[in-house]
Amino acid sequence: MELLKFPHVSLFKPCEPITAFGEELLILLNGMWDVMIKHGGIGLSANQVDLPYRMFTMLGPDNEKLFIVNPKILLRSKTPANVKEGCLSAPGEFLMLNERTMWVQIMYQDETGGVRSGKFQGLHAVCVQHEMDHLDGKSHLQSKSLSRQVRRGLAKKWGV
After folding, report:
1. E strands of the chain, at which residues?
2. What is the pTM of this model?
3. Is 93 an annotated catalytic residue?
4. CA dist., res. 145 & res. 148, Å (int)
């Protein structure tokens, strides 16, 4: 697996839900995990390695390996997270986005298809929100919470 960089077209395509769970899915998720760790990240969405599936890997709050498949946000705080976020597909670009919230409660499936829920706070909440935007084909580089001037500069720099 290769990490895609902006403005690769796959980063802007919404991902499809996973319907089949098994060894093949686990191989893909472990491959994504390896790419994420190799590049020093805490989260990686499937489309960042050119896979069109609604899933991401994440280093959890207790440094555990999380495989998050078909996630849905159930609840979110109204308090802004005030955490700068980066992206492995835009190395060195750290941005503070007003729409990221301090905590999120999500429902998702694990690598076996089991239904789980989790509440994530701070940096981990920002990571979940960031990766879920990727799964919807959205980039933090184009966030409406950034000024028009900043978005133009990012578009010129990253081709988005």
Report:
1. 43-45, 55-59, 65-76, 84-87, 90-96, 103-109, 115-121
2. 0.96
3. no
4. 9
What are the angstrom distances between the C-alpha of 158 and each of 5, 60, 88?
9, 29, 13
What whole-number distance in Å separates Cα of residue 147 and Cα of residue 63? 34
Euclidean distance between CA atoms 152 and 160, whole angstroms: 9
| Percent of the chain surpassing pLDDT 70 | 100
Question: pLDDT tens for residues 46-61?
Answer: 999 999 999 999 999 9
Total count of residues recorded for the chain: 160
Q: How far apart are CA 87 and CA 60, in angstroms?
A: 17
**Which residue is catalytic, options 85, 93, 99, 131?**
131
Q: How many CB atoms lie within 10 A of CB 92?
A: 6
Q: Does domain 9-153 have CATH number 3.90.45.10?
A: yes
- In our burial notation (b when 16+ CB lie closer than 10 A, e otherwise), range 100-125 reads bbbbbbbebbebeeeeeebebeebbb
